[in-house]
Amino acid sequence: MSEARARFVMQRMRELVTVDQEAGCLIARGRRIFLLRDRTLQQLVTIGSDMFGPAVWGALYEAGLRSGRIFGQRVIDQIGPDPGLVMAEILGSLAGSGWGVFRVIYFEPRHRIVIRVLNSVFAEPGRGYTQRHFPLGHLAGVFEVLFKRPYRGEEALCIGKNDPFCEFVYYPEEGEKAAQYQ
Amino acid sequence: MSAKPLAESPLASLLSALPERGELQFPSPLRCLILSEESLAAIFDVFREFFGEGYRSLLYNLGHAIGHRFAVEASGDPRKRFQELADVDALAGWGRYELVELDLENRRARVVVRNALAVEIARRIRSDCCDFTRGYFAGIFEQIFQVPCICEELECAYYGSEACVFEIRSE
Known about the structure:
The complex is a heterodimer of chains A (about 180) and B (about 170).
Chain A: H1 2-16, E1 17-20, E2 25-28, E3 31-37, H2 38-52, H3 55-79, H4 83-96, E4 101-108, E5 112-118, H5 133-147, E6 151-157, E7 166-172, H6 175-181
Antiparallel strand pairs in A: 1-2, 2-3, 4-5, 5-7, 6-7
Chain B: E1 4-5, H1 11-14, E2 16-18, E3 23-25, E4 31-36, H2 37-51, H3 54-73, H4 78-91, E5 96-103, E6 108-114, H5 117-125, H6 131-145, E7 149-155, E8 164-170
Antiparallel strand pairs in B: 2-3, 3-4, 5-6, 6-8, 7-8
Helix pairs in contact in B: 2-5, 3-6
């Protein structure tokens, strides 16, 4: 599903993205974007962990959450709030941006959402600590603006821990956090 | 500015897309991903909130490690090596670097950066974040000069200069 969408997004990208080599700018839909090597992300986590310990993972989750809210809202503004369409666009865009293949495994936003990630750019087989907290938070931010309630993302499986693939599970927040959102 | 659609730019031949794997490679076979300016701004902003001024050291150390690694991968004489890195980074959307001074004997260099991505981020989060770029150039020129280097930012576009200007010299 997201592979077909990714193919479409990657084709569309060739038309939508403008490159100004002289200025050193890439622009897509009026916004600046850039290419980042996977190793650079790995080094961010490695160096950050050495300096600040596991707090780096929380920071990456929070950064993903904030950027996911912005991204999710933009997609909703562009194509409307239909959850199916928004999910297809979001997951396809992530795959088209080289993040890996994202598949919806279970989708019941009032209780639980399960997303499987294949070939994630944020994790490497058996590598232990990874950069997965960023996409984990990113999708939590998307779900938050899409369903108008906060979500808590947990990683159930990770190739970094020698699981066969990565799998994110999202639960709607209850109690105080949900009340704060209201 | 001379913007072209991706398909007509030199980036098209260097960027490989593997949609069935959700994978991009640039330059092939090195894996990469696309991030928006907003995503990087979120990372920098949250790191500043979480780690205070310590985040500047993190950015510097990160830039230094990457610059060091990229310079090892580049080949040719010092100017060619730098130009190769500058061209790749320009295509990747990080801004345009110009080596305006290179003194191999005294191990000094000066680089002007226009349209720096870091400056766009700084405007978003209202805090300068050229520490990454400082570390990056220090890492590159340590490889070129083969001695430990420091990099100082003499002018910054975030504070109103036309461009960012960095001076790199041996420690």
